[in-house]
Amino acid sequence: MTGTNDRVLITEVLLRDGLQIEPVVVPTADKIRLAYGLMAAGLTSLEVGSFVHPEKVPQMADTDRLVRELRPAESVALHTLVFNERGARRAIEAEARHVRFVVSASDGHSKANAGVPTQEALARLRPAAELLTGAGVRIEATIATAFVCPFDGETAPERVVDVARALTAYGIKALHLADTIGAASPWHIRRTVTAVRAAFPEPPLGLHLHNTYGMASANAWEALQLGVRRFDASLGGVGGCPFAPGAAGNIGTDDLVNLCHQAGFATGIDPGRLVAVRDEVGALLGRRLDSALSAVPAEPVAVRGTAAAP
């Protein structure tokens, strides 16, 4: 179906989206060890934290320190989330080089997640974008509830396009669409991805998928058929949004890597090394993880020998 030069970029979001909903606050030293383990497995893009108030998301209180201590890994993009000008200033002070704006397509989720409706959330990102651009920081963006909202129901593609239009005006370098509560189907993926691609052939488009109803792999497959080559994933399927009722974990990095490799897509990621890091995550959280492959004692069999080549 594909050649080994058809490469998929996976951003590992365990350290942010994965841990933000866990009752256990993982120590910074353990996060750093996990980060280097993920890098050793071949991941070149990590989401490591969020510049939000520590009382709102205490699991992200050490984002500044993480960015500073991991920054020597220059070959790896370390992404952090920014929601406003204050977050942008913190990112610059921490010498972050990659940030992501997050804006909800639906007002209901925007009020729960950011405290204001969508248009206000977009407006307060304008000065943040100016600060970050002036500091030479690369900006990407994620549109949350791009398919379904827990408060407002299905999200119209036209609304997603409108939010994307505002974000592209801020000079973003990549755009990601998030199935925040994991309620999307392949039909939703095709409808909205097609609409956004038609309106904005650039910047590159990615997906952030959750697996609440077991559809994440089907949605990833649909996106691959549409030419999407960027995905967020969390090792072991850990994660969820504390401001979206019913949201379960992310698509598992281990599951997504297996899907890509079986279909002949290259990721540069070593499944065997992922197993060791996944076992450590399970021990830190004190539970069995949620990905399908977490129940398998070893890496999947019959993976194409050339598909994972860097």
TrEMBL record:
Gene Ontology biological-process annotations: ketone body biosynthetic process; L-leucine catabolic process
UniProtKB keywords: Lyase, Metal-binding, Transferase
Stored InterPro entries: AIPM/Hcit_synth_CS (IPR002034), Aldolase_TIM (IPR013785), HMGL (IPR043594), PYR_CT (IPR000891)
PROSITE patterns in UniProt: AIPM_HOMOCIT_SYNTH_1, PYR_CT
MF-aspect GO terms: acyltransferase activity, acyl groups converted into alkyl on transfer; hydroxymethylglutaryl-CoA lyase activity; metal ion binding
Presence of the UniProt keyword Nucleotide-binding in the record: no
Chain ranges passing through the membrane: none
Domain Pyruvate carboxyltransferase, residue spans: 8-275
Official protein name in the record: Hydroxymethylglutaryl-CoA lyase
Lineage: Bacteria, Bacillati, Actinomycetota, Actinomycetes, Streptosporangiales
